[in-house]
Amino acid sequence: MTTAADIMHPGARWIPAHETLDRAAQLMRELDVGALPISDENERLCGILTDRDIVIGCVAMGHDPARTTAGDMAQGTPRWVEADADVSQVLGEMQGHRIRRLPVIQDKRLVGMISEADLAGHLSEEQLAGWVESVYAKA
Fold first, then answer.
1. Which end of the chain is more exposed for a tag (fewer CB within 10 A), N or C?
2. What integer is the mean pLDDT of 10-37?
3. What is the distance between the alpha carbons of residues 20 and 15, in angstroms, rounded to a whole number?
4. Domain count of the chain?
5. Which percentage of the chain shows pLDDT scores above 70?
6. CATH number at residue 12
């Protein structure tokens, strides 16, 4: 059985909710990623911040990324999977919520992220096509 731990990109990092978006952008650049899970003061997942969120939700709205926090951008209920979840659970979570990145948790700690690139390297063509259709199709 293929699990989330098998397909994830290990070593994901949190951005604390109190950190500013300019710091988040710097961390994204350092890590060469387009998304960071947002953690509360107890290191619990409270959202995901993407590079697009920073541009569209902050800069394009005329807000200052040095004064806007990651927590200000956290919206909705964050989705995640346990490291031992099988690939069907991973796909179900991503397809059901039309999300492109999924944090992987083990023992209540962030251990990795699953992105499109991770899926592409581990799924059959049929599975990948079904994922693309459900996530990218217009609602």
1. C
2. 94
3. 9
4. 1
5. 99
6. 3.10.580.10
55-95 pLDDT, tens digit per residue, is 999 999 999 999 999 999 987 788 999 999 999 999 999 99
Q: Give the total residue count for the chain.
A: 139
Which sign, positive or negative, has the C-alpha torsion 41, 45, 49, 50? Answer: positive
Q: Is the pTM of this model over 0.70?
A: yes
Instruction: Give burial (CB, 10 Å; 0-12/13-18/19+) of 112.
Output: buried
Instruction: State the pLDDT at residue 132.
Output: 85
Q: Which domain holds residue 112?
A: 4-136
Task: Output the 3-class SS for the chain.
Answer: CCEHHHHCEECCCCEECCCEHHHHHHHHHHHCCCEEEEECCCCCEEEEEEHHHHHHHCHHHCCCCCCCEHHHHCCCCCCCEECCCEHHHHHHHHHHHCCCCEEEEECCEEEEEECHHHHHCCCCHHHHHHHHHHHHCCC
- Please answer whether residues 28 and 51 qualify as being in contact, where contact means their C-beta atoms are separated by less than 8 angstroms: yes
The residue among 76, 94, 79, 81 whose CA lies nearest residue 134 is 94
Tokens of 124: 């059959």
